[in-house]
Write a structure and sequence with these properties.
7-stranded mixed β-sheet; 7 strands
């Protein structure tokens, strides 16, 4: 799986159907940085600029750094957003040029050591790094069922992925004391980042109400969604069945996410 091209066929759906981030999460990312009009941010792995627009709408100047041409082309323009061709490991931004580096739904795609070194380079001395994700909430039964429907078609890919192999290995090591596993860092993947010191972590609830086209579009925003053929038709049929069982009187269903915010200071 190549992270630089993974979303090439999904850019339009990504821009239209991916959820935004809770206002309270954006406020935490910006807390203590000063007036928005004085903040310069670099949104790394910006995709179609969903989070970049949320920042720009507050008056922040944003460099939206994205390596995928299709994703850049699908981004909606904003006078305070400059879309840049670059990667997390080579942003092409000047030294000490930004107050804030943000990675929304993206940090897990990067080379950890190289990207963090690059973030340190482009951040000002008191700069902040914010890592943010929307995770599926499995406490919500509809969201959980929807997730497993759209994941079913890519099961064979997941079986080959490093993360799935690591999870299987960890399951086989259940006899090891939990404290020992935690000491090794398996449950703290982003807590000890080179060049940075973690300051805070937060969880926020995030909800996305969608109609049938939105529910299908959210699935199609994944890079591994089959675009044509029998597999695509079967998957869409399953999503339609799920929608018709769960829709409310207004024709909407609600996807529930848990938004994770991890704040780090440059050292």
């Amino acid at each position: 799986m190549n992270p630089l091209t993974y979303f090439s066929n999904a850019a339009a759906d990504y821009a239209k159907y991916r959820p935004t981030y809770p206002e309270v999460a954006i406020e935490k990312v910006l807390e203590g940085l000063g007036l928005p009009c004085q903040i310069v941010a670099a949104d790394i792995g910006a995709g179609t600029g969903i989070a970049s627009r949320q920042l720009a709408e507050k008056g922040i100047k944003v460099f939206a750094v994205e390596p995928n041409a299709e994703m850049r082309q699908a981004a909606i323009s904003h006078p305070l957003i400059e879309v840049c061709d670059g990667t997390a490991e080579a942003t092409n931004l000047p030294d000490a040029s930004v107050d804030l580096v943000v990675c929304f739904q993206a940090f897990h795609w990067f080379n950890r050591e190289q990207s963090l070194s690059e973030f340190r380079r482009i951040l000002k001395p008191a700069g902040r790094l914010a890592l943010v994700w929307n995770f599926w909430s499995f406490e919500d039964e509809f969201t959980k069922e929807y997730y497993y429907v759209i994941k079913s078609q890519s099961k064979h890919k997941q079986e080959r992925s490093f993360s799935s192999q690591l999870r299987r290995w960890l399951r086989s090591m259940r006899r090891l004391p939990l404290k020992l596993l935690r000491k090794w860092g398996y449950f703290l993947p982003h807590s000890r980042l080179p060049y940075f010191k973690e300051s805070d972590r937060y969880w926020f609830e995030n909800k996305q109400a969608v109609d049938l086209s939105g529910l299908i579009g959210r699935a199609r925003s994944r890079g591994d969604f089959p675009r044509t053929g029998t597999e695509s038709e079967q998957l869409i049929a399953e999503i339609e069945q799920l929608y018709h069982r769960q829709r409310d009187e207004g024709g909407l269903v609600t996807l529930v996410y848990r938004t994770r915010v991890i704040l780090n200071q440059k050292i």
